[in-house]
Write a structure and sequence with these properties.
Length: about 300
């Protein structure tokens, strides 16, 4: 196998300490993380995507911003103060897909995945993982959700401005992010972009699609604490641009569970607000910690679920 291509080590910053959802602080709060047995409040997973951008732009050219796809499964959390580098396999001749990963300075893996350019993205990390899912046993926290369920708010309207505060889920703006982003890129500024408008930073695309997520009607039992277990951002006809109107449509494409979590896999299709053409798809695998839901055992019994020890 050819030598891997590595980035420099970077110092990702925590920006979700004040994040709220369902009326309570999230796993990104130090006290909440400690109560659930974690060493510290994790940095939001999409943060690490920015470190790949210079590498993938060099590999794929501007096509990366127009038809690029990054698809990742998160393996270990990162807390502020830990250093991270990313890597990719060299692109094989004639291929449009490569394996990628990220690791801490002590070698602990952070994520594993794929990066590709379209129109045919091949077998991405997330698509492969969905194919391998076993049928769920009776879910508890996610018992009211169904595979194939569409968002109640379809279509939702979304836009992201440079100084737009993105709400309780994401209490910062693009300009706030650019002050601490691990890797700046000139295309994030309108006067340096080939598309005459600033490109939304890769790690902010999931924020664009999550900003109006509360309108989806995808209700789970709670309060309970969730985290990103996987994320795929696929640009189909891009790039995605700042201050541009989009329409979002959501669908649950899979539900799963493990010993510690229950997970949903939601695909958000992003359409141009003017032409209605499909410009991107984002698949978010959210994992909710069973131990964080106080009534888990009680509800499981009511639903007739046998809890495995």
């Amino acid at each position: 196998m050819a030598e891997l291509i590595y980035s420099e080590f970077r110092d990702p910053k925590q920006m979700l300490a004040d994040q709220e959802y369902d009326g309570h602080l999230s796993l990104h709060d130090d006290k909440m993380a400690e109560d659930l047995g974690f060493a510290g409040a994790p940095i939001e997973g999409p943060t690490h995507f920015s470190q790949f951008v210079p590498m993938l732009h060099e590999m794929f050219g501007d096509r990366w911003f127009e038809q690029g796809c990054i698809s990742a499964h998160y393996k270990n959390m990162v807390v502020e103060g830990e250093r991270v580098r990313v890597f990719a396999e060299p692109l094989a001749e004639g291929s449009t897909l490569t394996r990628i990963g990220a690791e801490k300075s002590d070698g602990t893996p952070v994520l594993t995945g794929t990066a590709s350019v379209g129109p045919d993205h091949g077998k991405t990390e997330i698509s492969q993982r969905i194919e391998m899912l076993r049928p769920s046993k009776q879910l508890v926290i996610l018992s009211d959700l169904k595979v194939g369920q569409k968002g109640a708010g379809n279509p939702e309207s979304a836009i992201m401005g440079t100084d737009q505060h993105m709400g309780k889920l994401y209490p910062f703006s693009i300009n706030d992010k650019l002050k601490v982003i691990t890797e700046l890129h000139p295309y994030y500024y309108a006067d340096q972009s080939p598309w005459e408008n600033a490109v939304i930073p890769l790690e902010m695309v999931s924020i664009l699609t999550q900003y109006t997520g509360g309108r989806s009607g995808f209700r789970s039992r709670g309060p309970a604490v969730g985290m990103f277990a996987g994320l795929e951002i696929k640009i189909i006809d891009g790039p995605l641009l700042v201050d541009h109107a989009y329409k979002l449509e959501r669908e649950i494409v899979a539900l799963s569970e493990s010993r510690r979590t229950e997970s949903s896999w939601v695909r958000t299709s992003v359409y141009d607000g003017e032409s209605d053409k499909l410009v991107a798809e984002v698949i978010l695998n959210s994992a909710t910690l069973k131990a964080s839901y106080a009534k888990y055992d009680e509800d499981a019994a009511a639903l007739g679920k046998v809890i495995e020890g």
